[in-house]
Amino acid sequence: MKRAADKGLLTVKVHHLRDWAVNAYGMIDDYQFGGGAGMVMMCEPLFNAIEQLNAKYAFDEIIYLTPDGEVFNQGMANSLSLKGNLLFICGHYKGIDERVREHLITKEISIGDYVLSGGELAAAVVIDSIGRLIPGVLNDETSALFDSFQDNLLAPPVYTRPVQFREWKVPEILMSGDHKKIEEWRFEQALSRTKDRRPDLLNDEE
């Protein structure tokens, strides 16, 4: 991400919601109606922040990071990497007022079936995943094309020097120089690894 920023390919700006607080004490959350534990982020500061920022940057997506959002995957990363400006709303406490979700949020994303104390780490995961797909970020742009999940398969095993370490040797096919056979071997390995570790990916493909 530092390389992306240094090249001017990606800019990440952090906007503090307390800049739009409803009072001098910096209030941005309140008790939930109906009772129950946990505070809720208020409508007013979120609406004001999102509307002002959207007027300035014209966001392609306004994304809320939440455990009950659509589960983030490589296909979503590919799609978001083609967008221009993205705004990430990082929830805290019990979440944000539902009216913000209903009227301003354009996409809701979860990075997994677990709960974090805030959405910042989830946003960082998504930004890193989509940022590396921007042309010019990686030294070898073809590298991202062969990552796990790009074709609904896990990546095949990889090896580097030495050819033999202790009693373990690199598969002969990888040193054959026959690129067609190497690609066939990699596909077979990727398919086998996916069947073994993530058969659900193959079911999705079907």
Which class of the largest domain in CATH terms?
A: Alpha Beta
Low-confidence spans: none
The count of strands amounts to 7
Q: What's the helix-strand series?
A: HEEHEHEHEHEEHH
Output the structural class. Answer: alpha/beta
Shape, per Cα inertia axes: elongated
State the helicity in percent bands: 25-40%
Could you give me the name of the CATH homologous superfamily of the largest domain? SPOUT methyltransferase, trefoil knot domain
CATH architecture of the largest domain: 3-Layer(aba) Sandwich
- What is the average per-residue confidence, as pLDDT, rounded to a whole number? 93
Question: How many angstroms separate the termini?
Answer: 35 Å
Number of domain modules:
2
Which strands sit side by side, in order, in the main sheet?
4-3-5
Report the C-alpha radius of gyration, rounded. Answer: 22 Å
Number of helices: 7
According to CATH, what is the topology of the largest domain?
A: Alpha/beta knot
Please describe the biggest sheet, giving its number of strands, its sense, and whether it closes into a barrel. Answer: 3 strands, parallel
As a percent range, the share of strand residues is: 5-15%
What does it look like?
The protein has helices spanning 2-6, 43-57, 74-81, 98-103, 120-131, 179-197, 199-205; strands spanning 29-31, 39-41, 61-71, 86-90, 107-110, 164-165, 168-169. The chain starts with a helix and ends with a helix. The model has no long low-confidence stretch (mean pLDDT 93). It has two domains: 2-131, SPOUT methyltransferase, trefoil knot domain (Alpha/beta knot, 3-Layer(aba) Sandwich), CATH 3.40.1280.10; 148-205, tRNA(m1g37)methyltransferase, domain 2 (Trp Operon Repressor, Chain A, Orthogonal Bundle), CATH 1.10.1270. The strands form three sheets. The protein has a three-stranded parallel β-sheet, with helices on one face. A two-stranded antiparallel sheet has the order 1-2. α3 links the parallel β3 (61-71) and β4 (86-90). The chain contains seven helices and seven strands. It has 206 residues and is α/β, with parallel strands linked by helices.
